[in-house]
Amino acid sequence: MRTAVYPGSFDPLTNGHLDIIRRGTRLFDRLLVAILENEGKSPLFTVAERKELIARCVADIPGVEVPSFSGLLVDFMRRVDATAVVRGIRAVSDYEYELQMALMNREISPGVETIFMLPAVEYTYVSSRLVKEVFRLGGDVARLVPPVVLESLKQRLPVTAAT
Ligand code: PNS
Known about the structure:
- The chain is an alpha/beta fold and 163 residues long.
- The chain is 42% helix and 17% strand.
- The chain is built from 6 helices and 6 strands.
- Strands 1, 2, 3, 4, 5 and 6 form a 6-stranded parallel β-sheet that branches.
- The longest helix has 17 residues, at 92-108.
- The radius of gyration is 16 Å and the shape is globular.
């Protein structure tokens, strides 16, 4: 049984994340989409809300679980018996940060491997931060997030009209 963790903030889940989740489940028997509990980032959605949104979006994908965690990722991985971290890389600009994290995780837990996966080309520019910004300013993000996420954005964020 091969277990991997796909960790992140997922505030909110995008179609890019979902694409990586689908790809990850082809490589691993069990994929834990692990939400970092980090209130310091002042997220738009609470951990419980993000958990519910993700769970609804992955309901049709076998082998996916949606836990949350605090503290070191590698400690969480030990608790859930995971051997690999899955991370999506969109552009070269992601690589430096991801390289640092992967090597740091390996330094503090030598058995941990990081698997970098490429999302579908049409999502290579999509980030949760930009989705929130564009939506807030009245842009159409319907193609970039799952429908339940779009609904939650509509309920949560007031759209600021141009002046
Ligand atoms: O989606 P994000 O915010 O880029 O994800 C970052 C995340 C959650 C993968 C990273 O911040 C993390 O693993 N945090 C847990 C604390 C930890 O282990 N830090 C050392 C990582 S080298």
